[in-house]
Write a structure and sequence with these properties.
By secondary structure, this protein is α/β, with parallel strands linked by helices. It has two domains: about 10-155 and about 345-355, 3-Layer(aba) Sandwich (Rossmann fold), CATH 3.40.50.2000; about 160-340, Rossmann fold, CATH 3.40.50. Helices cover about 45% and strands about 15% of the residues. It is built from 14 helices and twelve strands. The protein has helices at about 10-20, 50-70, 80-95, 110-125, 135-145, 160-165, 170-180, 200-210, 225-235, 250-255, 270-280, 310-320, 325-340, 345-355, and strands at about 30, 45, 75, 95-100, 125-130, 150, 185-190, 215-220, 240-245, 260-265, 285, 305. Helix 8 links the parallel strand 7 (about 185-190) and strand 8 (about 215-220).
């Protein structure tokens, strides 16, 4: 769940739970984050302990109590410890555990103990829910589970809400805030500043952009200092605005003024940030990882480069910045039409069909 005082991006998860509460009886277990006090979900509990071992057994007690109250469908978002205990409980007392995870974890080395535990959990769960067809085979092959056990439900976006937010934004005011003249094109990166999200590639990408575009970077993470050094090395800091962590409520301010969005990630599932770009009508350049191609409309597919192809990514970025107005308008129109398939209503219907 989101932490409203911080710049966490899980607002859409809370909104989905609120929509789900109109259709289902929910007992919500919050491991991290919070719900607003006015939530429709009245049956909820937030984990108390912060230390790993007490938390591990605390979640077991909470899920066991929920099962005794009749909650036989248990849907776990991310947490391996919750999925572990839920699987034991539903196997023993009846029910089904659905576990959601969307990424490419097989690309990264983990400790032997964590690797063993994760593999065990994937074997135990009733169903794996992930965000894209493109990563189903990766989960099936790496964890040795049947692809028939894996269900795809993509992320969603409330396009109408995005449109309303965009109409209320003072574009000139945002440019003044960023100290960017109206003549300059704006590139936008919104993500964690990590190698998984390609943040370390940003200095090289900006150095290869043929126009004097300004790169706006919203996010924080372990690569922040390293990429600052690289920007300085290339004498690019004058063309960069590093904003740090930005609350989700303000992210649309920067989509509103962006000419192109950048997603040079090494790993993705069904990236919610691309759905935001689609809903905001911002063309994007992206690496073809995870489900990126699946959620990209046809007119933007030429701007999706192969994973790790930085020169291709730079070419795609330059192509976007040089688009004729008519072509750009066509792409934006297609984005607005394409994103409808990821509406909250459409994904909610698929989710309810799954758990029912």
């Amino acid at each position: 769940m989101p932490e409203y005082a911080k710049a966490t991006h899980f607002q859409y998860v809370a909104e989905f739970v609120e929509a789900l509460a109109d259709e289902a009886d929910i007992f919500l277990v919050i491991e991290k984050g919070e719900l607003p006090e006015e939530s429709k979900v009245t049956r909820r509990v937030r984990q108390y302990f912060r230390s790993p071992i007490p938390r591990f057994f605390e979640i077991a007690g909470i899920l066991f109590g929920a099962r005794l109250r009749g909650y036989s469908v248990q849907y776990v978002h991310y947490s391996f410890s919750a999925a572990f205990w839920s699987s034991i409980i539903t196997r023993t007392l009846g029910g089904t555990t659905y576990y959601w995870n969307a990424g490419m974890p097989w690309l990264y080395q983990r400790s032997r103990s964590r690797e063993f535990f994760e593999r065990l959990v994937y074997k135990m769960i009733g169903r794996l829910v992930t965000g894209a067809e493109a990563i189903v085979s990766g989960y099936a092959e790496y964890y040795g589970i049947s692809s028939s056990k894996i269900i795809v439900i993509p992320n969603w976006i409330d396009a109408k809400d995005v449109e309303e937010k965009l109409r209320a934004i003072d574009h000139a005011g945002v440019r003044r805030e960023l100290d960017i003249p109206t003549s300059a094109a704006i590139l936008l990166f919104v993500h964690r500043l990590s190698k998984r999200k390609g943040a370390h590639l940003l200095p090289g990408i900006l150095a290869g952009v043929s126009q004097d575009a300004i790169l706006v970077v919203a996010g924080e993470g372990p690569e922040e200092e390293a990429i600052r050094r690289e920007f300085n090395k290339f004498n690019l800091m004058g063309r960069v605005r590093m904003l740090g962590a930005i609350p989700q409520q303000r992210v649309m301010n920067y989509f509103a003024v962006a000419d192109a969005f950048l997603l040079p990630s090494e790993e993705e599932g069904c990236p919610h940030v691309l759905l935001e770009a689609l809903a905001a009508g911002v063309p994007y350049a992206a690496m073809a990882v995870g489900g990126v191609r699946e959620i990209t409309p046809p007119k933007l597919l030429p701007c999706v480069s192969e994973s790790g192809d930085v020169s291709g990514f730079i070419h795609a970025t330059n192509t976007l910045l040089a688009l004729p107005k008519f072509t750009r308008k066509e792409i934006i129109q297609e984005e607005h039409e394409w994103v409808r398939r990821y509406s909250k209503e459409a994904i909610l219907k698929r989710f309810l069909a799954l758990v029912q």
